[in-house]
């Protein structure tokens, strides 16, 4: 597959703050990638390097194998940034038509309006729309040039649940045409639902880069619990996949990175009474990952058998 975006040991510092601190990242054509991180993690700075709005102090950022400037000038990249410019006093259709004319091979205007879900309000004045509709106008502006890559910095901030859902429907329709999407978000569920891959960024560094499912699993993704019925708990920690063991009353709770293997091993021992397997949320995984990266800098690394719950509690204070 063709590489669309590549960061190679990219660094961007603002004074003492290393906003992007040695990022390696590759995004292939057709992928939808979420950049997930807390406030100040470095997401917007990474996006500004990608769009050529900032130059890296060290390392390299390439788009379609060339410089970001070349790709942006050729209309290969569409962007929707946080500080959306005010929308002028023209109709939605006029605005998109005007923007489309500035690109070498734009989308037909009707198609851009349709993709962004604006067909019904195309004749309305663009500065008299609801917040959700205005956000769609910004999306249509980003799409107008028919870009191969679209970059969205927290695109659904301030949208209500319905507007958010409608926005992601539009985004997925655009991605389904074989285009590449990179978006940043604080919303873990959004990342899980709308991206093929999640890149977790913390303090300017990539701390995880995988599918939502695998990220959950890697931090001890599933919780396996069962009734002990008086059986001793020795050896549970050594079962395949088990990351931590907790006993509450007569119930054992095992955090497992491979719940299938754990359940099979428990079945071998006849420990299956009242057995349940529940998925850890991506939120647990995210908090755990960002806590690990903070503790590497600030404090001794947690012991190998530190429970996800403990690590999570540690992180919650910082998020
Ligand atoms: N122009 C700037 N001058 C000084 N510091 C900056 C500048 N831009 C960003 N920073 C700092 O760099 C770090 C990363 O900021 P960035 O905006 O990239 O984070 P973010 O992940 O996008 O955060 P948010 O989710 O709050 O938008 C922060 O500590 C921020 O204060």
From TrEMBL:
InterPro entries: AAA+_ATPase, ABC_transporter-like_ATP-bd, ABC_transporter-like_CS, ABC_transporter_ATP-binding, P-loop_NTPase
Region (Disordered): 293-319
Membrane-protein topology: Peripheral membrane protein
Subcellular location: Cell membrane
Entry annotated with the keyword Ribonucleoprotein: no
GO cellular component, one term: plasma membrane
Gene Ontology process terms (BP): response to antibiotic
Short name of one Pfam family: ABC_tran
Gene3D superfamilies, A to Z: P-loop containing nucleotide triphosphate hydrolases
Regions of compositional bias (Low complexity) in chain numbering: 297-307
GO molecular function: ATP binding; ATP hydrolysis activity
Chief site of localization: membrane
Coiled-coil intervals: none
Annotated keywords: Antibiotic resistance, ATP-binding, Nucleotide-binding, Transport
Domain spans labelled ABC transporter: 5-228
Protein name: ABC-2 type transport system ATP-binding protein
Species for this entry: Actinacidiphila glaucinigra
